[in-house]
Amino acid sequence: MVRNNLLQRIGNQPEIVPNPDDFRGWVSDCLVVLSVSASSVSREIGGGKNTVSQFLSDRERGIDLATAHRITAHFRGLAADKWLILPRAAWVTSAAHV
Q1: Given CB 3.0 to 4.6 Å as the disulfide criterion, which of 22, 51, 55, 88 pairs with 47?
Q2: Cβ contacts of residue 54 below 8 Å, gap of 6+?
Q3: Per-residue tens of pLDDT for the chain, all 98 residues
Q4: Distance separating alpha carbons of residues 33 and 85, to the nearest angstrom
Q5: For the chain, which domains are there?
Q6: How far apart are CA 86 and CA 76, in angstroms?
Q7: What is the pLDDT of residue 1?
Q8: Which residues of 29-49 are buried (b: 16+ CB within 10 A; e: fewer)?
Q9: Which helix (DSSP H) or strand (DSSP E) does residue 84 occupy?
């Protein structure tokens, strides 16, 4: 079995912590595609009201795996409900070629 077969394993739970800058860009793109606010996503994932907003605005702020997973899962659910396709995640593409 190939150790880095992340495209199959990332579907349910990410096993890598995305680069904060890559993830920040992806989250911003998804907010636009899904027409949702950062504060509404924060509430829906059970975070503080400004969790996503602060992550997006503070370049020094990282993100933990659990929060990244909750955001990703929430976006995937919204996209499925709205019949939308999310932008390609840069960290999955680059990690899959390692």
Answers
A1: 51
A2: 61
A3: 344 444 444 455 545 667 888 899 999 999 999 999 999 999 999 988 899 999 999 999 888 888 998 999 999 999 999 999 999 876 665 544 44
A4: 8
A5: 18-87 (1.10.260)
A6: 8
A7: 38
A8: bbbebbebebeebbeebebee
A9: none
Q: Read off the amino acid at residue 60.
A: E
Tell me which residue has tokens 């932008």. Answer: 87
The SS3 of residue 60 is coil
Tens digit of pLDDT for each residue in 1-11? Answer: 344 444 444 45
Distance CA 76, CA 27 (A): 12
For the entire predicted model, the pTM comes to 0.76
The amino acid present at 47, given as its one-letter code, is: G
CA angle 55, 28, 85 (to 5 degrees): 135
Structure tokens at 81: 């409900």
